[in-house]
């Protein structure tokens, strides 16, 4: 059964809005390994923390931080991916596959949509990556899965081509949604729910 609370091997701090909710902040505080995406390191460092690696060209870093932390800035020349994906690939190369991404939402909406949709790509490469926001957790999933929940929890299902979508333990019935909004704003009616289907989708579990 999939649970929204888990312990990642590493945490990526993306360059969106800095987390405010206790869960993503706790993930950062307790992380075994932290990768900052370029400018995200500014606030992380200003709060008294030191990342293990900074992914990016460093152009968004404050000059004093760019000089002080030059030894942990990793520049990856790949124009086909963003810094979040570069960070995931870096961790994958180190044998780390269980990752939480925080700070990936807020600011530019196109970046937010891109960052969230990339979770499915990471899953396809064998990674277990989740995006934890100030409002809930995005989990990429394939095929039939069960989820720990509680009555009244808000749940959204974003379809990435899954077929035969049906659910047990959700208030509203599912169908083979063709647009992202169609699977939003559902609600758990028990301590767990199951989604039956074949294919890929994202589940958002609100706090």
Please tell me about this protein's structure:
The chain is of the alpha/beta class and 207 residues long. The protein has two domains: 10-134, Thiamin pyrophosphokinase, catalytic domain (Rossmann fold), CATH 3.40.50; 140-206. It contains five helices and 13 strands. The protein has helices at residues 22-30, 40-46, 63-68, 83-93, 109-124, and strands spanning 10-13, 34-37, 53-55, 73-74, 98-102, 128-132, 136-142, 145-148, 154-159, 163-168, 186-187, 192-198, 200-206. It starts with 9 loop residues before the first strand and ends with a strand. Residues 26-129 form the Thiamin pyrophosphokinase catalytic domain. InterPro entries: Thi_PPkinase, Thi_PPkinase-like_C, TPK, TPK_catalytic, TPK_catalytic_sf.
Mean pLDDT: 93
CATH architecture of the largest domain: 3-Layer(aba) Sandwich
Shape: elongated
DSSP summary: helix tally? 5
Structural class: alpha/beta
Largest sheet data: 10 strands, mixed
Strand coverage percent: 25-35%
Tell me the helix content: 10-25%
Layout of helices and strands:
Elements: E1 10-13, H1 22-30, E2 34-37, H2 40-46, E3 53-55, H3 63-68, E4 73-74, H4 83-93, E5 98-102, H5 109-124, E6 128-132, E7 136-142, E8 145-148, E9 154-159, E10 163-168, E11 186-187, E12 192-198, E13 200-206
Parallel strand pairs: 1-2, 1-5, 2-3, 3-4, 5-6
Antiparallel strand pairs: 6-7, 7-13, 8-12, 9-11, 9-13, 10-12
